[in-house]
Design a protein that fits this description.
Elements (H helix, E strand, L loop, with lengths): L12 H17 L3 H7 L4 H9 L6 H11 L3 H14 L27 H26 L32
Helix pairs in contact: 1-4, 1-5, 2-3, 4-5
Organism: Streptomyces sp. 900105755
Protein name: Helix-turn-helix transcriptional regulator
Keywords: Membrane, Transmembrane, Transmembrane helix
Length: 171
């Protein structure tokens, strides 16, 4: 369990409640700040600022932490709304300060992840390659000058004879 530094004395009560709740949720995940950064779109240093009370966390950061910990999202968002109004620095951290990158590992609630996306892309590319190869093999003639006539297996010619002959090596 992480030992937190005391929150700044200048932090309003509403903001203090939000940060304390976020700390509890972070503790429930069992993740370090680096682990939390890997599972979310926020850097380790951003999480440090949010959980130390230095910066107001963005609403989305509070939501994703709540989802990862399985917390009561309505409660956390209500705390966030109150803290936003009382926060001494004003608005949450600007989006430009965030690390814009996809998460790298799967979250417990099916949070979309980087490794999962790569796996899906690799499978899709493999299937596409197989379909294209099969299509090319089907479309190419078997021998130069061969014409392929599509007939059902065992179809009869006009004379009533089978189109299969003993001289035709193909079934």
């Amino acid at each position: 369990m992480t030992r937190w530094q005391p929150l700044p004395a200048t932090l309003p009560r509403e903001a203090r409640h939000l940060v304390e709740q976020l700390r509890v949720l972070k503790g429930r995940t069992g993740l370090s700040l680096a682990g939390l950064a890997r599972r979310t779109a926020y850097s380790k240093s951003s999480w440090q600022r949010y959980l130390s009370g230095d910066r107001m966390p963005p609403r989305a950061a509070a939501q994703v932490l709540c989802r990862l910990a399985g917390g009561d999202q309505a409660r956390v968002l209500a705390l966030w709304e109150l803290a936003e109004q009382a926060w001494p620095q004003g608005a949450p951290e600007p989006v430009a300060d965030l690390v814009a990158r996809p998460p790298e590992s799967a979250g417990p609630l099916g949070v979309s992840t980087g490794r999962g996306r790569w796996r899906i892309a690799a499978v899709a590319a493999s299937v596409l390659a197989a379909v294209l190869a099969a299509g090319l093999l089907w479309a190419l003639p078997r021998r130069a000058g061969d014409t392929v006539v599509a007939r059902p297996h065992g179809a009869l010619s006009r004379a009533g004879r089978s189109t299969r002959s003993s001289m035709n090596p193909c079934p």
